[in-house]
Amino acid sequence: QVQLVESGGSLVQAGGSLRLSCATSGRTFSRFAVGWFRQAPGKEREFVGTISWNGGTVYHADSVSGRFTISRDTVKNTVYLQMNSLKPEDTAVYYCAARDRDAYSFSIYFRAMEYDYWGQGTQVTVSS
To answer: Which pLDDT value is given to residue 1?
Structure first.
């Protein structure tokens, strides 16, 4: 059974920080890219960022660049999303997603359809 489990979501004040974790089990995703997306109420799912299999390529969306950082621990099979200087507009359910294609690729994958497995999401709420 393949599973991605996000954790770390919480209520935080504007300007604060959170670190989200995405733990994988049932299959080793260390050979594949992992992405983070978010979805606010009434809005479409939005790309946040992605990291290649070994962390050699990392890309963040313009809306979070300079504030959010994606990293991964291949030993723990966990990907992280460090979020600093949070804003109320960052309020959303955050999802991690993993590919099951193109092992060892350094390409950047922006679209949700490019990912094969998804977690259940974790709520991040930023109060003003």
So the answer is: 66
Instruction: Tell me which residue of 117, 112, 101, 105 sits closest to 56, measured CA to CA.
Output: 105
Predicted pLDDT of residue 75 = 87
Residue 26's Cβ-count burial label (10 Å; 0-12, 13-18, 19+) is: exposed
Top pLDDT among 46 and 74 is at 46
Distances from the Cα of 53 to the Cα of 13, 90, 94, 105, 126, angstroms? 33, 26, 20, 7, 30
The first and second tokens of residue 61, run together, are 């969306």
Query: Distance between CA atoms of 50 and 68, rounded to whole angstroms?
Result: 11
- CA dist 34 and 128 (Å) reads 30
pLDDT at residue 89 greater than cutoff 80:
yes
Distance CA 69, CA 59 (A): 9
Q: Under DSSP, is residue 117 helix (H, G, I), strand (E, B) or coil?
A: strand
The secondary structure of 6-70 as a DSSP string is: EE---EEETT--EEEEEEEESS--TTS-EEEEEE-TTS--EEEEEE-TTSS-EEE-TTTBTTEEE
Confidence of residue 2 (pLDDT cuts 50, 70, 90): confident
